[in-house]
Specification:
Structural class: alpha/beta
Distance between the termini: 65 Å
Shape: elongated
């Protein structure tokens, strides 16, 4: 006998309620660990009342290994769309309360759908990851479905912003999807990412390691560079995502959103006159410089504890988002090494993909020297920065604060590398290398044959610096557009961005270039 509409509606409501109600024991465990449930995370992330769920009643098709009795609506991931500050986004949130958030075929299909649909609609996609990994009971079906996630992540790259929050374990193949996205945010103490777990490492290598030591936030934000941002807890993580989205356009076809502010575009930066020492060897904190320049002192730094000799992140100038790449003299004197080159190149390419102007603050003594760097491939990695800047067609403005030596100068976007505007501060020194090294090459014999080598060397260094110190050589040879005083830096940047706002530049028609990797 056919069921009545009333009976069907009742059963439908019951199934929907099962999907909505978190397992009390599982939810209690989550909260005991200081974590929110999957649906609580979505509620905190999105504007109130804006979430619309899709595929709520999806279930695993697997019936082997007792799975028929374990099936639950949603299949361990909540998917749908909503808004952040009134702007649409797609989101998925893995649910540890359902089959430990393990990724089955239905679960993976839902995530792949979210990414694909976000790309079609031109809106950002946000993944809240908390999963025990692939559901082995489903065999090849699950690996095929997971492959669809990887494919969609890859195809969506450069089309829409993709943000991954690691809010619990992210094990095995499940780590690759976040790695294919643009930004990874990891929660301290409660989240881990790794390909091979502690048990396998113990069996194969005989090494004992904890999950946190293997893939915790500290490892990935300071050593591996996998993680861009670290949050103290779930709430801070979700608030950070909302803040990040505010700097980004919805897709590659739109411009980043302007934020109204009352910070005077012509504000004089008198602090900069003394903030950056004239002595080339004295360190200072470039973060203070950036915060002095940007609107309301707000700078959103990325990978803050990885490759600390270079700073990247977002700020605003006259309300418009911009990306900053800057040498940090407090670490390795601001020189470029393998990790700093990777950090910068990826960020530059992201900004270029999503129409965010790039401002480079140059104060570089060169590439960091040594056998270790050469063995790690500094040639290959350093070339990534050259490639990224040359490839980028967004507005690019470079300011030389104190010095720029050798190939590292080009790696920080000189005019020949595509800078639309290049400014120098009055006391800059621009040369193939620093005075001491140059004199050792140019006047080696003369110094050796001198009755007082130390005095002769000092005189030659002074002569060299007399020639290359200051803005005159750079201005005379059109290396720079203008010399600007530190206090007028903000005003000149905003003026330049205004004229460059609708810049159009094309590159040769080809399938794609081959970036050094």
């Amino acid at each position: 006998m056919a069921q009545s509409r009333e009976d069907l509606e009742k059963k439908l409501s019951e199934r929907e309620q099962i999907a909505l109600d978190a397992d009390p024991k599982a939810a209690a465990r989550q909260r005991a660990e200081g974590k929110l449930t999957a649906r609580e995370r979505i509620d905190k992330l999105l504007d109130p009342g804006s979430f619309v769920e899709e595929f709520m009643l999806a279930e695993t098709p697997c019936s082997d290994f007792g799975m028929a009795e374990k099936r639950q609506p949603s299949d361990g991931v909540v998917t749908g769309f909503g808004k952040i500050e009134g702007r649409p986004v797609y989101v998925y949130s893995q649910d540890r309360a359902v089959l430990a958030g393990s990724v089955g075929s239905a679960h993976a299909e839902k995530i792949a759908y979210v990414i694909q649909t976000a790309r079609k609609l031109g809106v950002p996609v946000i993944g809240l990851n908390d999963s025990a990994g692939a559901r082995i009971q489903e065999g090849l079906s699950v690996t095929s479905a997971i492959g669809k996630i990887f494919f969609e992540n890859s195809i969506a790259s450069g089309c829409i912003p993709q943000i991954s929050a690691i809010m619990g374990p992210c094990i095995g193949v499940g780590s690759y999807s976040p790695a294919l996205t643009d930004f990874i945010i990891q929660v301290q103490n409660t989240s881990q990412m790794f390909i091979t777990g502690p048990a396998v490492i113990k069996e194969v290598l005989g090494e004992t390691v904890t999950m946190e030591e293997l893939g915790g936030a500290k490892i990935h934000s300071e050593v591996s560079g996998v993680t861009d941002l670290v949050a103290k807890n779930d709430e801070e993580c979700l608030a950070t995502i909302r803040k990040l989205v505010g700097f980004l356009p919805s897709s590659f076809e739109s411009l980043p959103p302007r934020k109204e502010n009352s910070d005077d575009p012509a504000r004089s930066l008198d602090k900069l006159e003394t903030m950056v020492p004239e002595d080339m060897k004295r360190a200072y904190n470039i973060l203070q410089v950036i915060k002095t320049i940007v609107d309301d002192g707000e700078f959103f730094e990325l990978k803050a504890k990885f490759a600390r000799n270079l700073v990247i992140g977002f700020g605003r100038l006259d309300g418009y988002p911009v990306g900053f790449v800057a040498n940090q003299p407090m670490f390795l004197a601001g020189s470029l090494d393998v990790d700093a080159s990777d950090k910068a190149a990826r960020f530059i390419r992201f900004c270029d993909a999503f129409n965010i102007p790039v401002i480079t603050l140059m104060d570089v003594p060169g590439f960091f020297p040594g056998k270790e760097q050469e063995e790690k491939g500094i040639i290959r990695h350093g070339a990534k920065m050259l490639y990224a800047y040359a490839e980028a067609t967004v507005p690019k403005i470079t300011i030389v604060l104190r010095k720029g030596y050798g190939g590292a100068k080009q790696a920080l976007c000189t005019r020949e590398m595509g800078a639309d505007q290049l400014f120098v501060w009055p006391g800059v020194e621009l040369a193939v290398m620093g005075g001491g090294g140059a004199v050792n090459v140019l006047y080696k014999r003369e110094i050796e044959q001198s009755p007082d080598p130390a005095k002769t060397r000092a005189e030659k260094i002074a002569e060299y610096q007399e020639r290359f110190n200051g803005p005159f050589e750079a201005l005379a040879k059109q290396f720079a557009h203008a010399a600007i005083r530190p206090h007028e830096t903000r005003k000149r940047l905003i003026q330049s961005l205004e004229i460059l706002r609708f810049k159009k530049e094309s590159r040769p028609n080809k399938k794609h270039g081959l970036m050094p990797v």
